[in-house]
Design goal:
There is one protein chain. The protein has eight helices and eleven strands. Strands 1, 4, 7, 8, 9, 10 and 11 form a seven-stranded mixed β-sheet that branches. Strands 2-3 form a two-stranded antiparallel ribbon. A hairpin with a 2-residue loop joins strand 2 and strand 3.
């Protein structure tokens, strides 16, 4: 059996012994995860069970994948001192910058520029300022990661998977965009590898593609923090003593309070906000 064809049900896509046994029983590769997001687009809604005439309820046994995902989500909440802090970002500057650069970048470099690379770059720079947010806890030992493998949470009909882009701290925004597109292509072609699905140090999840305005994401254990993006929505804001309509996005950082103090979590989001509201700071890094 080729283990690279087995879809893991552990948090972050880790393949466990039950996954291998289940795949062996079926004698075929597990369903491929949905493509990693390269542009805001919602996945198709799951097909509801068909009710027979006169039936008021339908019972359906959880799949092995869904059951194991549920177990790992519960384990994450039980094993961490889970807390969430929030902030909001004025997306005006990054929307304007992307609008000016998008066509030129696609024409000259063949790279489709979405908003996600801006968040990846900003989060990476914030992680370098606050390394505890990029750490991991092993019993009573804190493991500091001097690199950033950025996980992107992807929802699919089979469940949640988190492929990650390696060493984003060593890459510019164009290279990150290119890596995202290549990762998405491998996912669409059912060619994601174990390397794609393991080794992440921090995760970004984007509920905004489904219309979510605010949420508290669950930490991708054994990581210690996860960033939640949400829908950009025009709201009245006080700017220099005047009310202006600005495109605003709420962001959330769920974190393990055993390692990350509240001050660090708040300052991480403040740094992220500063970079997203002045994206030129990221381009000259």
């Amino acid at each position: 059996m080729d283990l690279t064809t087995v879809s893991g049900t552990g948090r972050g896509g880790v393949v466990s012994k039950p996954d291998v046994i289940e795949a062996a029983k079926k004698d075929s590769p597990a369903p491929a995860p949905a493509a990693a997001p390269r542009a805001p687009a919602a996945s198709p809604a799951p097909t509801p069970p068909v009710a027979r005439e006169g039936e008021r309820e339908t019972r359906e046994k959880m799949t092995t994948r869904r059951k194991r995902i549920a177990e790992n989500l519960l384990h994450s909440q039980k094993a961490t001192a889970h807390l969430t802090t929030f902030n909001e970002i004025d997306m005006s500057a990054v929307i304007e910058l992307r609008g000016r650069l998008r066509d030129r970048i696609e024409k000259e470099h063949g790279v489709r520029l979405s908003f996600m690379p801006f968040f990846i770059k900003a989060a990476t720079m914030a992680l370098q300022t606050y390394p505890d947010v990029n750490a991991q806890l092993d019993d009573d030992v804190i493991i500091y990661k001097h690199y950033v493998n950025m996980g992107i949470a992807v929802a699919s009909k089979q469940g949640l998977v988190v492929p990650n882009i390696k060493d984003v701290d060593r890459k510019g925004m164009l290279e990150v965009s290119r890596d995202m597109n290549e990762l998405a292509e491998r996912a669409r072609s059912n060619k994601l590898t174990m390397d794609d699905l393991t080794g992440g140090t921090f995760t970004i999840t984007n509920g905004g593609v489904f219309g979510s305005l605010l949420s508290t994401p669950i930490i991708n254990y054994p990581q210690v923090a996860i960033l939640g993006m949400h829908k950009t929505q025009d709201r009245p804001m006080a700017v220099d003593g005047k009310v202006e309509i600005r495109p605003m996005m709420y962001v959330a950082l769920s974190y393990d309070h055993r390692i990350i103090d509240g001050q660090q979590a708040v300052l991480f989001l403040v740094r992220l906000k500063e970079l997203m509201e002045d994206p030129g700071m990221m381009l000259v890094d």
